[in-house]
Specification:
Layout lengths: L6 H10 L8 H8 L6 E5 L7 H6 L3 E6 L2 H13 L6 E3 L11 E6 L10 H13 L1 E11 L10 E7 L5 E12 L4 E12 L2 E13 L3 H11 L2 E7 L14 E6 L8
Parallel strand pairs: 1-2, 1-4, 2-3, 4-5
Antiparallel strand pairs: 5-11, 6-7, 7-8, 8-9, 10-11
Protein name: SAM-dependent methyltransferase
Pfam family, one: Methyltransf_25
GO molecular function, one term: methyltransferase activity
Amino acid sequence: MFSYYSKLSSEVYDLDKPIGTTFGDVEFYSERLADCNGDILEPGVGTGRILIPLLEKGLNVDGFDVSEEMLSICQHNCEERNLHPTLFIGKMESFSIDKKYEAIIVPTGTFLLLHQREDSLQALENFYRHLDNGGRLIIDIFLQPDVAVGNRSARSWETKNGDLITLETTIAEVDYIQQYTVSHHRYEKWRNGSLIQTELERFPLRWYGVEEFRMLLEKVGFQHIVISADYRYGEYPTLADQTITFEAKKQQRSVSE
């Protein structure tokens, strides 16, 4: 019954956050990765909003996503700019490739889509395995300070050919113990007053406390953790609505090891 980042929701994402959109994150990640000479990986690459600016700066970035529709849009956006990165279908908690990365980045809270704690931990361990010794993980999270079952919101977008896409979001579940919400998204596409396409999406989203997430990273083995708020490097968060970024390093082993 429910889809997940299928055709309409992927189209809306590209309409709502086209390439060139930034919330301060594009500049932040560009600056933090400027000294990377090796390969970078972006899990949950989406439509390429972060990937493409990094590629255009000459960085070597691969990307993957669980959604074929999102990846197809990303591929199209790259080809329009004559960019040809390695893109593939994969899950954060289970992807496995014979390659190590100098950095792995998960911007915009994408990591929180893993709403089961076990999957989150598996994903962090998987990132660790795919990093070079001394490699960095940079990852965004955010809190959900104002949620309640039944809360609703609505938005709409006009496509290039004049169709109207509407989205109604309803919070269907809030689990304060396991720390996640589940929203139901109803997408509808209208043309000349007639409904031509509809899509239902189940959208889970987890949250973590700041120090809780630091401890998770430490449990996996990450060190030298720096926490930033609203893309101001090293500035510890003070407000519940701030974007929180963690930068952490895989332990550098000596040659003898």
